[in-house]
Amino acid sequence: MSTPQTTAKRVPLRVITWSAVAVTSVILALIAAYVYQHDSYWSQRWTVDLTVYLASGHTVRDGQSLYDLVVMSPLYGPMPYLYPPLTAILFFVPLSFLPAATASLVWNAVSLMALGAVVWMTLGIAGVRDGRVKAVLTIAGLILTAWLLPVRVQLVAGQINMFLLLLVLMDFRKPDSRWKGIGIGIAAGLKVTPLIFIVYLLVTRRWGAARNAVLAFLGTAAVGFLVRPADSITYWGGLVFHSSRAGGVFDTPNQSLAGMLARVLASDAFSQWWLVVMVVVGAYGLGVAAYAFRRGADFLGFSATAITGLLISPVSWEHHWVYVIPLLIWLAIWAYTRRAVAVALGTALLTAIFTVRVFMIVGIQEAPPAPMDLALWQQVVANMFPLTGLALLLLGPLWVRRHFRRSGAVGATVAPAVSGPVLGGRGTLPAMRFAEPEPEAR
């Protein structure tokens, strides 16, 4: 006769972990809904983007054109649908069958589950091998990263970026997977910004992965043409290049290089030399990513590519910066295993930068009617994300050169097994084992 103890042992650890992730995600989504709907500032912005998404689902169901859709926001004015037709078909048509409040809860809960998957995958990339430690860190990481500003804004607005991050990150879990690139291609087919990761695959000469990504991207576009041909022609025929539909370039939450230039120059006129600056930054950032790859740090190459894409995009809202989450987790694991105080302090500083909305605290406007004339210290505050991204791209190669060798593996950087922290004073967590990653496939 089985006892409760033996029955519990039959439940796989992964099932327990993902059940805990699901429950934690629902609880966090409920807390977010309660807190933000009772806040005078954030309640005005609650589901501002999800409202457009739900309207796009209704539009598809009604057989109307997606790109004639405009939702009037009391705060932001006219808000059009911005993404490819397939995104509305896959996500927002099913969601549109639910009442708005229920759809918001479901959307945010599933987004947080995707965040839990991002944390879990990043821990694996960082070398955490012990299943129980990984499970505990996944739940703790989910709760902690939910406080980051890009995640909070994503939950308030009801955004899609967490799913894109998850799809892209899946392609960096294993260096030699035959399916590598498919997640990037699908993500780019849902929202074009992940296309920069295909460029990263090309500059690192991973032709098979780049081919997979391109084919997956074309496949998503083809499905869109089959299901919504007129909308697909409108979108891919030119609308995809109209970044001005996304909002004012000088708005403070736009934390791209273009947004920074607009605020520094107090102008929303996109000058030709701005384009030159972004091309130079893009080439340099991809060069940094390729350098990290050659030193055996493909994950850091992924991070450099993500930061480069965020910088050179005409519009990178705060919630787009969810791509820094894996880097923060990876650095925290690195600092712990290496007992690297400087890296720990740097990670803490980065976490603070991506947690506190400083410009709001000091009274800098979010969406002014015209570019603002800001003092130097205000410029630093208003451009915190792009300045941090540029600093990471400038300093990153020096750090990579110091810690990563050229062999294509990162064994020289991996710490031995270390004891976990005391748990409730009654013992320790199992040893946190860090296995040496496999060499990169060339």
Could you describe the 3D structure shown?
With 442 residues, the protein is mainly alpha-helical. It is built from 20 helices and 2 strands. A two-stranded antiparallel ribbon has the order 1-2. Strand 1 and strand 2 form a beta hairpin. Helix 3 (48-62) packs across helix 4, helix 14 runs parallel beside helix 20 (384-403) and helix 15 (298-312) runs antiparallel to helix 20. The longest helix has 27 residues, at 100-126. It is globular and about 55 Å long.
Q: How many strands?
A: 2
The main β sheet shows up as:
2 strands, antiparallel
Strand order of the largest sheet: 1-2
> What is the alpha-carbon Rg in Å?
22 Å
**Average of per-residue pLDDT values:** 88
Kindly, what is the distance between the CA atoms of the first and last residues, rounded to a whole number of angstroms? 54 Å
Residue share in helix: 55-70%
Oligomer type? single chain
SSE class: mainly alpha
Question: Low-confidence parts, pLDDT < 50 over ≥5 residues?
Answer: 407-442
Which band does the percent of strand residues land in?
under 5%
Overall geometry comes to globular
Question: Treating each run of at least 4 consecutive H or I residues as one helix, how many helices?
Answer: 20
Keywords: Cell membrane, Membrane, Transferase, Transmembrane, Transmembrane helix
Family: Belongs to the glycosyltransferase 87 family.
Main location: membrane
GO molecular function: hexosyltransferase activity
